[in-house]
Amino acid sequence: MADTRFIIQRNSLIISARANRLRRLAALGGRGILLLITSSSALVILFIFYFIIKDALPFFQLRGLKEFFTSTAWYPSSSPASFGATSIFVGSGLVTLGAILVSVPLGVTAAVCLSDMLPFSLRQLVKPVIEMLAAIPSVAFGFFALVVFAPQLQERGGTILSVAWWMITAPVAFLMLWIVSSVLSSRLPERIRSMGRLGLAAALAAPTFWGIWFVGRSFHALEISSGANALNVSIILGIMALPTIVSVSEDALQSVGGELREGAYALGATRTETMLRIVIPAAKSGICAAIILGIMRAIGETMVVWMASGNAAQIPRPWFNVLEPVRTLTATIAGETGEADHVTGSARYHVLFAMALCLLVISYAFNYVSDRIVRRTSRIGRA
Amino acid sequence: MDLTSRKLVDRSFTGLGWFSILLMAAALVILLAPIVVRGLGAFVFKGTVEHRKLQFEVFGHGRAGAVDAETAEVTEARQPVYDMLAAFEAELESADFASRRKHAGPLRELKDHLRRLLGPLPAEDAPVLMREQYGQTRWDRAQMALNHLLLIETYDYSDPTQMGRKILTPRVEDFKGTSLEPLFAYVEDNASAMLKPRWTLYWRFLFDSSHDAHFFGGIWPELLGTIYLTLGAILFAVPLGVISAIYLVEYTEEGSRLVGLLRTCINTLAGVPSIVYGLFGLAFFINSLHVSQSKSVLAGALTLGILVLPFVIRSAEEAIRAVPQTYKEAALSLGVGKWRAITTVILPAALPGILTGTVISMGRAAGETAPIIFTAAVSVGQPLSFLQTFSEPTPALPWNIYNLCSEHEAVDEIRHVQYGMVFTLVMLVLLLNSGAILLRARITKRMRG
Amino acid sequence: MTVAPTGNMVKPVLSIKSTNALRQPSDGDNQGATHLSIEDFSVFYREFQAVKNVTMVVPSGRVTAIIGPSGCGKSTLLRAMNRMNDLIPGVRTTGRLCYLGVDIYGRECDPVEVRRRIGMVFQRPNPFPKSIFRNIAWAPRINGYRGDISNLVEHALRQAALWDEVKDKLDQSALALSGGQQQRLCIARAIAMQPDVLLMDEPCSALDPIATSHIEDLIDELKKQYTVVLVTHNMQQAARVSDRTAFMYMGELIEIDETRTIFTKPKKQQTEDYITGRFG
Question: Domain limits at B359?
Fold first, then answer.
């Protein structure tokens, strides 16, 4: 038999103490190198903090904290220069708020629809839509906002706004009327209940729709002086944040699992009641994390706001007037570093790093919160 | 609430869900439609004889004979215009002073418009700027120029509460009763004979370099710059990311403090706004490490590499985690060392996932603008050779889209180039993404046998 | 189902590079000699003791079966024999587990080398997502095999009684094979490394009866050349293919003896209860 064997080179089972030590050393060294590479890619974040802080500190040493955070006078290139960034913070906040208002209701309902309403085949169609929206580069969104959307908004902004107003309020009003009239009419005797409900609905409908029409008309009459304003940017940022919100909340809704849903259905709840009372509360931390991630996307976005927000360092009057141009932290950094670069060392250069530091701190804080939420949820899920 | 109302609420809720999905799809369509339709306009359009002449003279595309023959034909068609002009000028020489003064301004304007439409007038010195050496190369632009030639645009600001009102008057009014009057009718009727518009597929838009600040030619320097930056970023991020993923999955115990720390770092890195990467790249790679004198492809690629690193790590981690534990057991039971088992069994099995993540990261790197503003991008430049990428900055698609649509001197005249660039970039990114999905499907299928 | 040694085999290359080469088991002459000896051996998963102070020997050139109810520690003991438990965090061992007289848990022992000599076949077929050919050629190549690799592959496949079924599709993915074929491929993959001992962890539990009988026939052939340790919860299988049988219960080795003895006149009451089906 022996001659039919193919001998494969064998080493000794026992290795000498020296070889053993060498081997252990090599294994340890290999692990060390791996750890080094891994931590170097993780430590980049510390590098980023270090280099941003290093260049941000001189600004605070030169000018202190008070002016930067409380003044609205942003004249970095005049002399004497002033570096009040309040209006820029407000601008960032305003467009982010606008983006949330656009994307959160849409995104969460879309996620609910995607996870619980659409048939499987349609879901396979919608997923690529979301992936494509997520993949489109931000500069393409910015281009759209500046070249396509802004002129339209400027020319027929009133019409666009009033159509949007009707699209949102009319169905809501109709639904509310139905519910209110049915609740009120439930006291009526059986015979005249349906008649009474119709009458009530009609009576309530008149003032409601008059109110909607009235507001819609005043929207229609609005003249928008520039299409590059906070509204434009908010809408586009909202659309950009949608894919994140939809996919993360959908994951959260999916992870709730079938048993809870079946339990609710078995008790005679409708799908809406199941979703609103059972599933969404169970998935709420995941949805919160999704919203935070969406907010981070909106705050950190540069190109869209730089191209289409109008870049005016002013606080709109009143502060929520989204039809006025604003300026954000990211756009300020993008727009002014090029000019400030050759005056390295001046306050004008370092103030941009101070802004980057604020952005970093904000994004770190949000990241931390969402991380905590996700971690807490997964712990509960496991227990 | 009674059952009917509950059902109605349920229906409306369903409707709301559908509404938001449809709105999202509509947003995608509204966004992509103008980009695709007008972007294709940079590739497929009615090109005039000027386009073919330019292509031949500047880039050497096309046949000499054909271009010459066409030029001869249009010269013949244009000759009456120039004759009329010459005749009118001669007439003006001998006219009285008042008439000369009255016509000098309009005549100059008319000649400007003619130059813009048809190129330099005969018997004039060749202009310095290339945009003045040729007439309109595209029929759509030519028709606009023709409109401007035929109609004078003025604004009426008499009502201060309103924005200015546009008033169009035919230019021919300026020359009523002179020998130049028939010129306008002639130009209007013979415009297509003078320019010979023809449907053209200009696929070289991708590979021609640009001339005279994007008035003519294509987008090759930008495209090449984007390719360099993307490949550089991937070359930097993928090895680092895959090794980190291997370490995190195979060499650490989940739940240890070190892993928690590393993971927090990577998650935070993923959340940093892209503009901060740009500033970091400027402060670190250029001002501290001095990888290059100033902006360079290298610095930009490194910055983009750091940007996509967390995504590469995450996707590689997921892919490696998805490889069945049994592969590893089988490999080890055959007397193969751990590292060997990882490189020859686990990594190949995880390859589809890693590749998918890599290709999607490529799409991200290609589309990012903010990180390259201060580290790599310039507005105008020539295509770089490989060695130059270590020291020279480059134009790149995302940056030049921004630049052309908000800082260019003649934004409106090069809309087709802007749209063409956006179209190219969006298609590049979407192709990479769908390529990744196909790749994943295909390799998974092959693995299943 | 015969293993036909092809005539034109390459000549054996005795390339034992080690300086202090150990006794190589030669075939045939030492039937019944001790191959693995286990002394007072325990395995702990953190606090839980899965294998309790087991002492037994595995003789060379024979099939030893380990039987017992689920969770009795038989798989853990088997996986301990080529240090596969190293993969699971929190595992530690006490006692000695000697292979050819060397404690494989000793500090100076190289676990990779142990696994080269003690092959393993798992419960579920786990071929690599590669072609059939590369599944088998992979490990020898990595371990520096310099001979004719396609001969080696053919030899291993013939030994595993799979050659005739796959010889025309060696380039196809191994995952396209049936479950039984995959399991035989895994056996071929293990014996291509020419191990001394072959550990089999319930190799038929995921297979249908026909595939099971193929594997059982194969084990019968393999014992001519290899020492086989087989874990099974199927007593008929143990009775059919093994020479010696060990019965484990709650982590303890209750009894080990010739298979015939265990199944006909076991010494311990627990063994008898298990075999006659009173529990398990």
Answer: 220-448
